[in-house]
């Protein structure tokens, strides 16, 4: 989100802003897809799930399912909630494996106690800081959201939010309401000194005080000067060791397509172009 | 909407509703899809499920078949049982219909497999 453009939250309420045209970008803009899935990888890492265990994850503001697909690729099953039916339609078109529903996070997460092993939310939380209706009070909606989220998480699990706060007051408003709802935790800011690569994560614990994970790109970390997030390399190497094809590789794509064919879905035929690197220009 | 989702979903965000579970399913279209069997995932989910609600839901959709009415205490070693649970939880989908709040009768439409849980401002 460039500083020169007006923030989407100021333009219209989310169910209006994320219309068909906006939702379409989430299938066509490869740069956007790449960024969302990188941030989801990092959120998943911060979620610190038990290694190699398939988990049941809530994706809040799941949109067109970009974040959800990253969860699938790591072997998890997810349920997504989003306020925009246009975004969810795109997710259906993209044949995501998660299950989705229309819902407003500010009205609360309506699941039974202890349902999920963890929750993630990518680029959605800042929307709750706005009052889109006269009856909306952001602190109240945030509290309702966090308190109901707390109850539907299993004990000891975490919720991780990548978000774009507008200013420090918003960060304070959000963290205050989260703590009031019973969470502990705080902010993890990756690459704090880079305008381009800086990313904010709110990491919340249900199980009492714990040490916050280390941010990337701080003094202790070697800053590579690019917005490439190194943990994904590590993850890929681990997967290779465990015998799974690295993500986005030709083999990985072929495997995924084969799986989908077995499920009787329409899958494009394999060609010599399948899984080829595209040139870096857009 | 898959039945695993239905088993977790409540209408307790509605003002005045305490439990809001299980939501009654009135389906006009149900679909079965094939999903890869993951015994570990199903095993991990079973303790979290409300098994009675799952059986009720499956029965109302006519897909209970021979799913046992109670959880086999040794379920992690019973592949037959896990496969049946897998099928009901992940392979049966409500595509069109309604979910009904057990306390207020409020209806939540399901379209294209997506339940609409949005509330009017005066219902919150
Ligand atoms: C930038 S998109 C990100 C979507 C997805 N997480 C991803 O990474 O691709 C933000 C999403 O948050 C959703 N959203 C905004 N406010 C919301 C609310 N109050 N309740 C539920 N979803 C909301 C929007 O509809 C939109 O789909």
TrEMBL record, chain A:
<feature type="compositionally biased region" description="Basic and acidic residues">
    <location>
        <begin position="248"/>
        <end position="257"/>
    </location>
</feature>
<protein>
    <submittedName>
        <fullName>Probable 18S rRNA (Guanine-N(7))-methyltransferase isoform X1</fullName>
    </submittedName>
</protein>
<dbReference type="InterPro" id="IPR022238">
    <property type="entry name" value="Bud23_C"/>
</dbReference>
<keyword id="KW-0489">Methyltransferase</keyword>
<dbReference type="InterPro" id="IPR029063">
    <property type="entry name" value="SAM-dependent_MTases_sf"/>
</dbReference>
<keyword id="KW-0808">Transferase</keyword>
<feature type="compositionally biased region" description="Basic and acidic residues">
    <location>
        <begin position="230"/>
        <end position="239"/>
    </location>
</feature>
<keyword id="KW-0949">S-adenosyl-L-methionine</keyword>
<dbReference type="InterPro" id="IPR039769">
    <property type="entry name" value="Bud23-like"/>
</dbReference>
<dbReference type="Pfam" id="PF13649">
    <property type="entry name" value="Methyltransf_25"/>
</dbReference>
<dbReference type="InterPro" id="IPR041698">
    <property type="entry name" value="Methyltransf_25"/>
</dbReference>
<feature type="domain" description="Methyltransferase">
    <location>
        <begin position="57"/>
        <end position="132"/>
    </location>
</feature>
<feature type="domain" description="18S rRNA (guanine(1575)-N(7))-methyltransferase Bud23 C-terminal">
    <location>
        <begin position="204"/>
        <end position="279"/>
    </location>
</feature>
<feature type="region of interest" description="Disordered">
    <location>
        <begin position="214"/>
        <end position="282"/>
    </location>
</feature>
<dbReference type="Pfam" id="PF12589">
    <property type="entry name" value="WBS_methylT"/>
</dbReference>
UniProtKB/TrEMBL annotation, chain B:
<protein>
    <recommendedName>
        <fullName>Multifunctional methyltransferase subunit TRM112-like protein</fullName>
    </recommendedName>
</protein>
<dbReference type="InterPro" id="IPR039127">
    <property type="entry name" value="Trm112"/>
</dbReference>
<dbReference type="Pfam" id="PF03966">
    <property type="entry name" value="Trm112p"/>
</dbReference>
<dbReference type="InterPro" id="IPR005651">
    <property type="entry name" value="Trm112-like"/>
</dbReference>
<comment type="similarity">
    <text>Belongs to the TRM112 family.</text>
</comment>
